Amino acid sequence: MSTLKKSDYYGAGLAIFSMFFGAGNIIFPLALGNYALDKTFYGISGLLITAVIMPFAGLLAMFLYQGQIQQFFGRLGKIPGLIVAFLIISLLGPFGSTPRCIALAYSTLKISFPFLSSVYFSAGACLIIYFLSYKKRRLLGLLGYTLTPALILLLTILVVKGFWDAPVTDQIELAQSNLTIFFHGLNEGYNTMDLLAAFFFAPLVLSSLSKKEVENQTSQLTFVLKASAIGASLLALVYISFGYLAFYYAGHLEGDVAREQLLSTIAIQVLGPYAGFMIGLIVVLACLTTAMALIAAFTGFVHKEICAEKISYQTIMIGGLILTFFIATFEFSGISQFLGPILQSCYPFLILLTAYNLTIKLYELRLANIRSPKQVCDYI
Q1: Potential cystine with 299: which of 184, 185, 292, 317 (Cβ 3.0-4.6 Å)?
Q2: What is the mean pLDDT of each run of 10 residues along the chain (380 residues)?
Q3: Which fold would CATH assign to domain 2-379?
Q4: pTM confidence score
């Protein structure tokens, strides 16, 4: 065993950021800034509520339930709760968010490599995801200390140069009201699917602590709160930066620019001939890190809750990735059309469930007169 160090907070915070920062987190802030224009502030404000505040409230609620997904969804009843949890993790895993990550990476790279085949790319991506994440204990370290720092470095270069070289033009004004744009931002936050992911990322983070010795003054709760704050802050910063980048470069995004090509189009203006390679790395890293976390969460849930550990973890992951491969061949637009109506229907319900479970837990802690982080950990 080793004692938690300061670097562990940053490593876990970076890993949490990379888990959330996938296909939707790249596309929707850019699309929002391109749509909201001079009212980007109001659109991003709405996005931050449904794509940062609510997901991290869900993450906190799951930590208070010690990552016990059955207990969290058990408020709906044992069988209904299990069914709802399975449907959600299936959407996050092979039937939605994971193939969407692969499809976005393919759409972005195809601009620079037009000969690229969707079938071969999807198959190769699934193989890479398997070999990097089939051992779940090492997932958080790989994300936090290797892949995410590279991703953040590339994002920083793009954003800083983008703001530095932003064209000086008259602001393009949008006729719609501030409130309309705010609610549009709220709806775009649904499409990131981050609240759904939060329920299943908590067990991954907690499992990384199994080999760490938690001292009296450095409780699990303190650890996850600090790590979550780092992840949430980074995510919010990227959303704000991407939203305003799309606004500043809106003049270069006129015409029929597909959502999945917004980042590439802006990067060409910012980085010139290096854009293809740079954006390819950013998107592949972002999608790879999130896909790894999502397929690991799906595998862990099915392995424990559905199969009662009677089927091996690796076998379930292989099955999930085979399904992911077939769905990914529908490409980004086809997957988004399928997911959109489902998310619009279920997201408000999940927000209410999160708020209810979080309120119940906090009320229980108050009744028990529990105040310090260590007391909370001992109680739960």
Answers
A1: 317
A2: 63 77 80 87 92 88 81 85 87 86 82 82 90 64 64 82 75 76 89 82 67 50 80 91 88 70 79 73 77 85 86 90 90 76 80 86 68 53
A3: Sodium/glucose cotransporter (1.20.1730)
A4: 0.78
